[in-house]
Amino acid sequence: MAITREGRICSFCGEPGGPGTDLQLMGGLGAQVCARCIDDFHEMLHDEELRAAARGASPWDSMTDAEMLATLPMILSSAEQNLAFAHEWVDLLRTRRVSWAEIGRALGVSRQAAWERFARKTGDKGATA
């Protein structure tokens, strides 16, 4: 099983990217970041005024209700992308024959809780393995 960046979004700006698009994504563990956001963060890290401004109020403090509502779908898309990555990661572990008990231990839950959370999506019926 190969994990790809196809169909992913930048976890920071919400723009779709990956193969077949002009927006190249980098990152891992579900979170993806585009080159434009990397450039913006790099500029901020090397500009004292921008860093000082970033230490100030949170972005949502200056947003209107409409702007916050418009941002909500992007937040959920990013969360769903991370959850989908977790499912892909569990799929990879299962193809390596890692047991549900080991997966549960890594997540701090029981074997059954891990299976209930991930097996239904992956189609893995090996509850006892």
From TrEMBL:
Residues 7-48 form the ATP-dependent Clp protease ATP-binding subunit ClpX zinc ribbon domain. It comes from the Bacteria. InterPro entries: Znf_CppX_C4. This is ATP-dependent Clp protease ATP-binding subunit ClpX zinc ribbon domain-containing protein.
